[in-house]
Amino acid sequence: MRFNRKSVFLFLILFWALWLAFPGEQSFSGAQGLRVAPDFILPDLSQKKVRLTDFKGKVVVLNFFATWCPPCRAEIPELNKLYRLNKEKGLVVLGVSLDMDLPPQNLTTFVKDKKITYPVLMGTTDLAEKYQVNGVPTTILINRAGKPHTRYDGLVPASRLEKDLSNLL
């Protein structure tokens, strides 16, 4: 059987669409999961150092993203909304940019253009490896005890994220 370029292209588009429609979700209760969220110290856009353990006692949404990623961009309005509505209840949203080659001023411009209201940190390859991030977006919910609760690989449906957060808050 021989495939032409058009059929391969259509297959890839279909695969990508299905991946976005049905993101992978994993619970961290299994033996392969992280028992404790790896701590980190990363700079925010003003070069202030942010440490994960500073948020112990709060629910943390750790969202790994890249500026060039369409699904990542699609999640931003929902993450803004969730942060705005729940920060008084102890919710922290941390965006972790994996645009390692992007100058910080370009990331600052992106954050302003997209009207991101939650803290955005400049990520590292080492951190992505610690959290086993193989693609973006990857979102990890961390409970008040600092333990990973749920992981989403791919675009997170807003209703699913809201439901999972309501159980943690």
Report what the structure shows.
This protein is α/β, with parallel strands linked by helices and 169 residues long. The protein has a single domain (24-168), classed as Glutaredoxin, CATH 3.40.30.10. The protein has five helices and eight strands, in the order αββββαβαβαββα. The protein has helices at residues 5-21, 70-86, 104-113, 125-130, 158-168; strands at residues 24-27, 41-43, 49-51, 59-65, 91-97, 120-122, 138-142, 148-153. The strands form two sheets. Strands 1-8-7-4-5-6 form a six-stranded mixed β-sheet. It is globular. The N and C termini lie far apart (53 Å). The relative contact order is 0.21.
Question: Could you state the order of secondary-structure elements as H and E?
Answer: HEEEEHEHEHEEH
Number of domains: 1
CATH domain fold name: Glutaredoxin
* End-to-end Cα distance: 53 Å
Q: How many beta-strand runs?
A: 8
Mean pLDDT, as a whole number? 86
Helical amount among residues, as a percent range? 25-40%
In CATH, what is the homologous superfamily?
Glutaredoxin
What's the level 1 CATH class?
Alpha Beta
Low-pLDDT segments: 7-12, 14-22, 27-32
Topology:
Elements: H1 5-21, E1 24-27, E2 41-43, E3 49-51, E4 59-65, H2 70-86, E5 91-97, H3 104-113, E6 120-122, H4 125-130, E7 138-142, E8 148-153, H5 158-168
Parallel strand pairs: 4-5, 5-6
Antiparallel strand pairs: 1-8, 2-3, 4-7, 7-8
